[in-house]
Design goal:
By secondary structure, this protein is α/β, with parallel strands linked by helices. Helix content is 32%, strand content 20%. Strands 6-7-8-3-9-10-12-11 form an eight-stranded mixed beta sheet, sandwiched between helices. A four-stranded antiparallel beta sheet has the order 2-1-4-5. The structure holds adenosine-5'-triphosphate, iron/sulfur cluster (SF4) and magnesium ion. The site of iron/sulfur cluster has 13 residues, from loops. The site of adenosine-5'-triphosphate has 13 residues, from strand 2 and helix 1.
Length: 373
């Protein structure tokens, strides 16, 4: 490790979006396990999907945190826990200091207005039988945002804000393209003037040509209305332009958190280095000036029976014996950079070579990276 570690900094002192003061959102040791049941008449619980397993981060007012990781690492589950679409198994989700993780539906109601979600799929997230006016107007009515007589004009105003024709309030979702539908979803989220929006892969279902437009719209809205964002994505290219702070998840855990510049130029966790080396325009910087790609082999292990110690060890070219026996804590380096790795270090050209050698060994052998190499 090239930097002095200072031990784990309590998340309460940080606002991972980049500012100071009490965070708007503070997630502490958040856990969500889904029971796995046997088939048959008596459906006994035979295991737990450890979808989210001890995640902590915070987001300040008006700030954006990117949450990135491969498919199945627990990003959407984290987003649904923050918005209380799911109840946590344990841990805390503090919004303006209140732990909303166990509030009753009645007590939760005011927070539902403050915390909104934009879903990945603009096709299934809008009811095809409701007009755009009804989709955007319903939250206005439910939360009494404007008097009834003003709902239509407010809907039209919101359509204009997201770049749609205000006269189209009477149309149905099926009459819009994917990008336009996502704009409707954004207008619905904005309608209640939320303080926090969880955007769960909001552009991954859209054409590449449309993605930048929607991300730019979200960035403009974030600036204009001072909304905080948790922006979920499966690759580092999308969050790069939107989020000053980025958290990388692997198999239910956060493995690295850093501000954008540090993460892109000095990723310390082998998993982040591998993710970054796959992003074409930053790959060179991420592997210490060399173009070689850091390669990972194999699939993400099952979250029902994750590897002992470090969950990344079955795919890590740097793994040693300690990685199997001791889980690396998320340690804070100088500059607030956090990383969970026993051998955290900035990337070097040797990493690319070692990772490629590990891939070759796995192809020749049994698919496992030998420990203690
Ligand atoms: N309701 C559920 N019941 C059981 N397992 C679930 C449930 N929801 C999610 N999971 C499992 O939890 C893990 C994390 O899922 P999640 O949807 O949070 O991942 P993700 O990072 O959002 O993936 P993707 O990039 O594919 O959207 C996966 O193994 C998933 O199969
Ligand atoms: S703790 Fe070990 S296995 Fe995990 S990322 Fe670091 S070196 Fe790799
Ligand atoms: Mg998801």
């Amino acid at each position: 490790m090239t930097e002095t570690t200072t031990g784990t900094t309590p998340t309460a002192e940080r606002t991972w979006g980049g500012g100071t003061g009490t965070p708007l959102l503070e997630v502490k040791d958040l856990v969500k396990h889904f029971p796995v049941r046997s088939t048959g008449v008596i459906r006994r619980v035979v295991g737990q999907v450890q979808a989210v397993d001890g995640v902590s981060f915070s987001v300040g007012r008006g700030e954006s945190l990117g949450l990135v990781g491969e498919s199945g690492c627990g990003k959407s589950t984290t987003g649904r826990l923050i918005t209380r679409l799911l109840d946590p198994t344990s841990g805390e989700v503090r919004f303006e200091g209140t732990d909303i993780g166990s509030l009753s539906p009645r007590k939760m109601l005011p927070f539902r207005r403050e915390i909104q979600i934009i879903f990945q799929d603009p096709y299934s997230s809008l009811n095809p039988r409701h007009t755009v006016g009804s989709i955007i107007g319903t939250p206005l009515r439910v939360h009494n945002i404007v008097p009834k007589k003003d709902v239509l004009s407010r809907v039209q105003e919101l359509l204009e804000v997201v770049g749609l024709n205000p006269e189209h309030y009477n149309r149905y979702p099926g009459e819009f393209s994917g990008g336009q539908r996502q704009r409707i979803g954004i207008a619905r989220a904005l309608a209640v003037r939320p303080k926090l929006i969880v955007a769960d892969e909001p552009v991954s279902a859209l054409d590449v040509s449309i993605q930048a437009q929607v991300v730019n719209l979200l960035a403009d809205l974030q600036k204009e209305f001072g909304i905080s964002f948790v922006f979920i994505a499966h690759d580092l290219a999308i969050v790069r332009h939107f989020c000053p702070k980025i958290a990388v998840m692997y198999l239910g855990k956060i493995v690295e958190v850093a501000d954008r510049e540090r993460l892109y130029t000095q990723p310390h966790h082998p998993y982040t280095q591998a993710l970054l080396s796959a992003v074409p325009d930053v790959g060179q910087a991420a592997v210490g000036g060399r173009r070689e790609r850091i390669r990972l082999f194999g699939d993400v292990p099952s979250p029902i029976d994750p590897p002992s110690g470090c969950r990344f060890r079955t795919r890590c070219w740097k793994a040693q014996d300690i990685c199997a026996s001791q889980e690396p804590p998320l340690r804070t380096l100088v500059g607030g950079h956090q990383v969970a790795c026993h051998f955290a270090a900035p990337p070097s050209a040797a990493d690319a070579q070692a990772s490629q050698a590990a891939v070759a060994a796995a192809v020749d052998g049994d698919g496992e990276v030998p420990l203690g190499r």
